[in-house]
Amino acid sequence: MRLLKKLVLASITAGMLFSCQNNQKQNTEINLKDVAYDAFIYAYPMMEQVKTINNMFDYMNMVPNVPAMNPGFPMDNVGQPIVAPNLTSMTGGIFIDISNGPVTIEVPEIKDRYVVYQFVDVFTHNFYYLGSRANNGDGGQFVFYNQNQSIPQNSKATPVLMEGNCALMVNRIDIKDRSELEYVRNLQAQIKVIDAPEKTSNYPSYNKEKAFSPQFVEYINVLLEEIPEPEVEMFERFAKIGINNQVNLSDADLKLVQEGIDSAYHDIQNERVNTQIGNGWIGATELFGTREFLNGNYLNRAFGADFGLWGNSKEEANYFMLFTEGEGEITFKPEELPPLTDIGFWSITIHDGNVFVSENDYQSYVITMDQMQFEEDGSITFKFSKEPQDGNWLYTPSEQIVLAIRASQANPETIGSYVPPAFIQGK
Q1: CATH 3.40.50.740 given to domain 314-425
Q2: pLDDT class for 24, splitting at 50, 70, 90?
Q3: Contact present, 225 and 232 (Cβ < 8 Å)
Q4: Which fold has domain 65-195?
Q5: Residue 8 pLDDT exceeds 50
Q6: What are the boundaries of each domain within the chain?
Q7: What is the pTM for the complete model shown?
Q8: Are 106 and 58 in contact (CB under 8 A)?
Q9: Is 126 exposed, middle or buried (0-12, 13-18, 19+ CB in 10 A)?
Q10: How many angstroms separate the Cα of 90 from the Cα of each of 66, 189, 249?
């Protein structure tokens, strides 16, 4: 009898041990997949930025801490394979590298036209702005540094604290026509880096195969020397797959990490459903902003990078797109116009089905607010067709068309709930 009891007890103990081992194995599998899912969503916008900046290094011959301005007239982008080009502003940028010390930038005073300097950090947060809205177009010097650095004692520049060691400044200066080309180029030439360390860091190269494999963790390890204070606990989880940590993952572990990556990218792509705001329009007013504004919504940040990297914060500019077909019109009643501040303005641009701006004989591509013809009651109608029409008319370049509304300096309190009116076909 005692022997039987011992055998039963041993059997129960073995069964419990086997069950615990199974549960532990299952929890490890779930954890690795879940950790990889969260880490990839966190890293995706950072990797998209690496990809785009690498392209800028090649296309614009951009190098760290040296201004790279595009001297071309915006309308020259018509007919180019550029998705949703801005046809009203001349653009440029500076890749800011403070890995070896603070960097000081100087910008000119610009009061006679719209200008914006958008500063995007390593996380793709819009951490700082200068320009017409942000500082009334005033010029000045601005020194960028991180929490481990000291500003030079003799510096009279405005201090700007950064997270991470690199950032991108994107600037846009409005231009009305070609007669202003040399004038705006002169303004671009006054955007300078007046103090920067001679040495810069080695920015990572982009490799798509690596970015979508368990090796994606290497991008975070290179880009982040320090873990942001609000995310220390999250990075402790990320350490399980090799972020800020040395790990030896088995083939089975790597398979689970890959499953987490694939699932995360699928959800990033599907997030587009949540940008549908009504009347067929999609909007992106809540996808871009500071760390505080995004408030830990890493999926929004990732989709924002996928939707349109370096989109502006809603206080600066907002974007609405409509994919439709055929000819037709849109009528905005006074209460349906984009809600703007006193210095706000908006435009509507037409693209072909691939979101390119195709050349046409009428040079009909965009209507800006200063060109719009309003009715006496304050309403406005836009017409889209192959044949020219009186009033606010845009040429339809193909059967499938994409309309884009850009609303700058919108009312931040109401733009988040704004829905443009519907496109009525056949009118």
Answers
A1: no
A2: very low
A3: no
A4: Immunoglobulin-like (2.60.40)
A5: no
A6: 65-195, 314-425
A7: 0.87
A8: no
A9: buried
A10: 18, 12, 49
